[in-house]
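Example record used in the benchmark description.
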Amino acid sequence: MATNREAEKAGREREIFTEFAATAGLRLVPGSIVSRPVPEPDILCQLEGQGAVAFELVELIDEGLARSISCADGSGVWVGDRTLEMVRTKLKTKKYETEYPLELLAYADIDLLLPEDVWMPGFEQLLVQMLNGSAFRRLWVFVSAASRKPARIRFVHPSL
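Model output (structure tokens):
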């Protein structure tokens, strides 16, 4: 039986995933988004024309970290080494039990301080290197509309 915290986390992941799927233009079978227990990936859904696909989610900025390094007005944060370590752990260390294609959704729901052209090229390169040899077929970086800007896909590899 799931605890309240686990249920809240699963609900939040479904919200983020639903927003991500709409932003990415993924054609979901209505009502197919389901939270899954560990050691399965976080989300299982049905994509029209593809069938079942599993998604593991990782938040790029830990909430506590975001509070501690955000601007005085709380409007943004930067992506640092801890972010890459969180993604590396998901890609290389954790083992997932699923028979379905597996994709990683790295997301943020706050603004990132540095302009994208400053941090994204190096970040993309490291992500591609980490994805190679992992169990994941694709990696997405998504910024939610909760950041007070339109939701957007910042990166996808390999591209669709």
